[in-house]
Write the C-alpha cells for this entry.
Amino acid sequence: MVRATTSARENFDRDGFVVIEDLLDTTELESFGAAVDLGVRTRVGADDRQVSEKSLYEQSFQQCANLWEDNPDVRGLTFHQELGEMAASLLGAETLRIWHDQALYKEPGGRETDPHQDWPLWPIGPARQITAWIPFEGSTLHGGAMGYSPGSHRLGLAKFSDITREIRSEPYPYFDHSEMAAPVWVEAPIGSVVFHHSLTVHQARANASDQMRRVYCIIYFEDGCVRSRPHWHQSLDRQGIQEGQPVRGPITPIAWPRPQGDVPEPPTDMGHPPRTGFRV
Ligand SMILES: O=C(O)CCC(=O)C(=O)O
C-alpha cells in the first residue's frame, strides 16, 4: 500500500503539487529509463536537427506520447500500481484511467517550458486529472527543474496559453487577477515523483547542462470524465469518443486499481499515436 500520507494530501490540496520522495527505487528507474530511452530513440532518433532549428515548442522537449503502446517494457511503468495508488489517493479518486503517458526529454540547450495549465489543452472534463512527473535521474535547477505556482489550481482557469503554438501573444502569467503566487522551483531527488493537478500553473527551466533531462510523465484521470470539446486529441479520436461520452476504451484503460501483474495490451486496430509532439 502506498497511499499518500495525510500531510502529502493536504499539501497537494493546498498547493496543487507535491513531491513524493523514494517512490521508485534505482533498479526500477534504470530499467524503465532504458525502456523509455529506447522508445524515444525509435520515435525521434532520426531527427538530426539542432535545437535551434526546431519550433519553439520542440525546443522545450522531445515529446513522445503513449510509449506504453510501443514497448511492453514501458507498460510496467505506465501501469505501475504503487504510482497509480499514490496518484489516486492524492486526487481522492477511486479509479484512475490513463489519459496518456509521455516522455519529455529536454535536450542540452533546450529552452524553458513556458508556464501553462494542462487542462485547457485537453478536451476532457471535469478537471480531475493528475500528472506523475518522473525524472529518471532527479532534477536540478541547472538541468530543467520544474516550477509550480502554489495554489493556482484553486484559481480556476487562467487565460488560455497554448504553448504548443508558435505565437506567444500574451505575457505570463495569464490570470487577470494578481493572486497567483510566484513559482516554487523543485529540485526532485532521484527516486521521487512530483504530482501536479491539471489546473496547476507550471513551467520548467531551460536545460543549461550538457546532459539530456530524461523525464517520463503519466497523466491519469478519474474514471467517469467525459469528452468536453470537439478538438482533436489522440486519446479520444483514435477510439471514436464523441462529446459528452465517457472516456473509456483500450487507449485510455484503467490504470489503477488493476490486479497485480495484469498490464493491458494496446489495441491493434486504432492506429498509432503521433510519433512526436502534442498534435499531429
Ligand atoms: O517537463 C517539462 O518541461 C514540462 C512538464 C509539463 O508541462 C507537464 O508535465 O505537464
Q: What stands out?
A: Residues 6-256 form a domain with the Jelly Rolls fold (CATH 2.60.120.620).
